Request: fold
Amino acid sequence: MTAESAPLKKLDAEALSLDSVSLWQITRRRLLRRKSSILGIIILAVLILIALTAEWAAPYSPTLSMLDTKGYPKEYAKKRAEPCIHLLGCPADQPQHIMGLDGNIRDEFSRLLYGARLSLIIGFATVSFAIVVGTVLGALGGYFGGWVDNVIMRAMDVLLAFPSLLLAIAIVTVLGPGLINALIAIGIVSIPAYARVVRASVLSVREMDYVSATRALGGNTYEILFKRILPNALTPLIVQGTLGIASAILDAAALSFLGLGAQPPTPEWGSMLGAERNQVFTAPHLVFYPGFMIMITVLAFNLLGDGLRDALDPRLAHVS
Amino acid sequence: MTSYIFRRLVLSIPVLFGILFATFALARLIPGDPCRAMLGEKATKVVCDEFNHRHGLDKPVLVQFGVYINEIAHGDFGSSFRYSKPITALLMERLPITFELSLVSLLISILVGIPLGVIAAVRHNSWIDVLTMLWANMGVSMPVFWLGLMLAYFFSLTLKDTPFQLPPSGRLSAGVIPLPFFEVWGWNLTPDSFLFSFADFISRMNILNAVLSQDWEVLKDAAQHIFLPAIALGTIPMAIIARMTRSSMLEVLGQDYIRTARAKGLNRVKVVLKHAFRNALLPIATVTGLSLGGLLGGAVLTETVFNLSGVGRMMYDGITARDYGIVQGFTVVIAIFFVVLNLLVDISYAYLDPRIRLD
Reply:
């Protein structure tokens, strides 16, 4: 008896230690194995830092013209002045503007820093909205099936039948231009992706034994749906959400570029770029920097999303 | 096959109805009174009642929806009050330009994206693979409008007075006036006939028209003008295609039959192109089809940046001028177009992969 129980105990301990490696630990390990995901995480960390510290890091106000800035030498307050960097030989008596001044004589660098805050908020807000609505719709459709499913999924098909940017444009045209309306439009346009992901997961686990067991034990619909079924949809949702933030930021920038999103003087990258687009030949810095920031931000979310997908998908374990 | 196509067609009907309902609802939801939006704030009630009656706005909403569907079934997509022209006429003028741009972009993205993806997969984990993937990741993350502006700056200012200088906007240089091919060919078409509309549509695509009328000067000029916008518009699909080609090829290259083909002494190129690539084609075709919607959306941005008078640019002008007729009409047409495209992509699967049984 005692001779047998010792190795059994050891086995138990091993099983326990195996148990303690959670999905998240495995994911983190796999994620950090990829250089591209690390790059994405680093860029994202820097952007979040910029967004949090914009007030202290920005040398000037993002919305105030240099002409209205106290103590600013007026002779240097020129429209679309080129970047002046002291380290690169710009005269020391001239105020430093590492990215120059914009068409309204505002410090481009300060505006860019504040823009990081806005872009991150845009990305998270739209995707959160789309995830919540999409999850509810997808879960209802998948769980109840029948006509509920049919109505919901046909509505999603209609949304998917439009090229997403065009539909967003049409919706904003109706709601009227503005950042909030642009966010709503992009949010609506991205709902189908999440509804489909959740519905697919619900369908795949709905008939599982543990769901039937919960039902047999008297679990109600709410419990089954939220405690047994939805956790299974979490990983594809996280991946889809991360990649969704990337495209939401890109679409929001496009809407702002067209004048439908953030309105001046909001320091939003897309609208900053749109306002100066006709000056690209005379003041290229005002077009280059905002666009570059958009690209870097979107790139970070894309890299992280790809990394998460590979890390969370056990079928791909052999690839990495 | 035929029954599958038929079933798919029947299944797209509810989606088409949904599209029409969505655009109809969007137009009704626009805040403000359409009469005062069209005739100005000072329009009196009598004038407005007459206006509403003339446009059927005094009828129940369901009746209005029926009328709307009936109009669209007859090819009437409403009209633009800014140009006081029917949307259909505007589309016939503008669509060829967008069509040409999208086709050239798609062609570039396929011709560059697929070889890059194949090479990256064959040379997995080499520097060329890393570079391609880095570039592809940046490509999908790039704002189209920014890329367009940067390309315009680089090719028309930085490369000024070099042989690589390219025009930053427009479709043709000033003074270059292309003759429609049917006039060059000496066709005598009656205006408003179907053949005339068709020939006119074709002749508005500068490159195709120049080839048909063998005007090489115009062809060169048109090609130079379309190059930058096509690159800007094509970069995202190019990157998506390259990525998908790579991952699809990687999966196929790991299969046993590839090892068998190599083991029996077939040369590498033949194995990659004939055995692997053909089997990797299906997902590539899928993403190519899916990226068409992105192309249509991106056309709004590209045409705005490069001043091309296509559908996208017109949509932008419609937005800024609050010409809802244009926005609504174009959205419907493009959505219908998109549904048809998706249908074609689905059907093309059958040819690419005989294992997929459609019925």
Q: What stands out?
A: Chain B has a mean pLDDT of 84.
